[in-house]
Design brief:
By secondary structure, this protein is mostly helical. It has four helices and no strands. Helix 1 packs antiparallel against helix 2 (24-41) and helix 2 runs antiparallel to helix 3. The protein is flat, with a radius of gyration of 11 Å.
Length: 71
C-alpha cells in the first residue's frame, strides 16, 4: 500500500543518515521500522529484501552476529 511504502522510504532514509553519522544503534532501530513496513508491502516487494540486507549489515558491523542469523 501507499502508506507502507511511504513509511518504508522515510525509515530507510533516516537509517542511512544515522548510519553515515556513525549512529549505528539508532540506524538499526530505523531499519527495523523499514523491515516492518516492508513486510506490510509483501514478501515479493524488493524493499523488504533491501531493508533486511541493510539491517543485517548494520548488525554485523556492531558485532551482533547472533541477531543476523535470525533475520
Amino acid at each position: 500500500t501507499w502508506l507502507a511504502g511511504n513509511r518504508w522510504e522515510q525509515a530507510s532514509t533516516t537509517a542511512v543518515q544515522l548510519i553515515e553519522q556513525g549512529r549505528f544503534s539508532e540506524g538499526e532501530t530505523a531499519l527495523e521500522k523499514a523491515v516492518e513496513a516492508g513486510r506490510q508491502l509483501g514478501t515479493q516487494d524488493q524493499r523488504l529484501d533491501k531493508a533486511l540486507n541493510e539491517l543485517a549489515e548494520v548488525r554485523l558491523a556492531q558485532g551482533k552476529l547472533e541477531d543476523v542469523v535470525y533475520l
